[in-house]
Amino acid sequence: MSLLDKVPGDLRLYIGGLFTLRRKQALQEANITHVLSVLKLPLDQGLFRDFRHMVVEVDDDDDEDLLQHFPATNQFIQEGLDGGGGVLVHCAMGKSRSATCVVAFLMQKYLISPSEALDQIQQSRPSCDPNEGFKAQLELYHRMNYPKNVEESYQYQKWLYQREVEASNVTGQAPEADKIVFEDELSSPQCASVEFELRCRKCRRALANSGYLVRHVPTGINWDEDGMTIDSSEPSPSGCAHHFVEPLSWMRSELEQGKLDGRLECPKCKTNVGKYAWQGMQCSCGHWVVPGISLTKSRVDEVKPRREATATMRIRKPPGSQNL
């Protein structure tokens, strides 16, 4: 197999491994003008003397965030192609990291799926195969519709938050405060339609609405207060004792303390209205929810909003706002 493989099609786009840079004659014949290096290994800068060079320092690990670099790598590749020369994208082996960046470019340019883009690359370089973490990031990039600024995307911020939650399960530590996503501070698509809102039973302060609920399917196993199981022949949503919700801005002072679990108090009357556990919580129906951020049904009321109030609830509010 050649160490300088061209992506099939009209583009002068090539993919390879680290040793491809030693093939001077092949690089000249391909008229390579731009080189994108996607790796952390120390690089001999003399190898790039004749090229426009960009480096993205990531390891070939599932938990590396390569997604944040896609807009920049796409732009670099396109600039090289627009200049009339060839572009080489390489990593250590020309298999995972470089393939991921080329797939992201082809997806954006031709509006195709990750699998379609990878199939195209594998026609000339069958060994290309991004790791599972990068594949998931490519799927997310596809669902995000290739934004110019990934870091401002709602989906990206949610993805980072989920990664932090997963890490908390592994390390036994709460997520970093700046990684927690407070759903009511974002333009969340979940809140396009509000069926009801949850209000503190004591003071009537609005705490959440149906758009912020974390839905789960009851397992049919119910638990009493002592942790003993109660037989249930069929799952019953009404048997759940909790409303599980996304993090909301009124919870900020509690959730940013770095504790693994704790109580949630109504910001107005200070009544205990729920609890949270970053490593997860088991609902009374038996379902395990991670992270577990819950409002106790006996402490809140479901209230259907007035029609004129519904539009207000869709508006993004600043931190600490009294209205959702």
UniProtKB/TrEMBL annotation:
Residues 67-127 form the Tyrosine specific protein phosphatases domain. Keywords: Hydrolase, Protein phosphatase. SUPFAM superfamilies: (Phosphotyrosine protein) phosphatases II (SSF52799). The active site is at residue 91. InterPro entries: Dual-sp_phosphatase_cat-dom, DUSP12, Prot-tyrosine_phosphatase-like, Tyr_Pase_AS, Tyr_Pase_dom, TYR_PHOSPHATASE_DUAL_dom. The keyword Hydrolase applies. It is an enzyme of class 3 (hydrolase). Its EC number is 3.1.3.48. GO terms for molecular function: protein tyrosine phosphatase activity; protein tyrosine/serine/threonine phosphatase activity. Residues 5-147 form the Tyrosine-protein phosphatase domain. PROSITE patterns: TYR_PHOSPHATASE_1, TYR_PHOSPHATASE_2, TYR_PHOSPHATASE_DUAL. GO terms for cellular component: nucleus. Belongs to the protein-tyrosine phosphatase family. Non-receptor class dual specificity subfamily. This is protein-tyrosine-phosphatase. It comes from Lineolata rhizophorae.
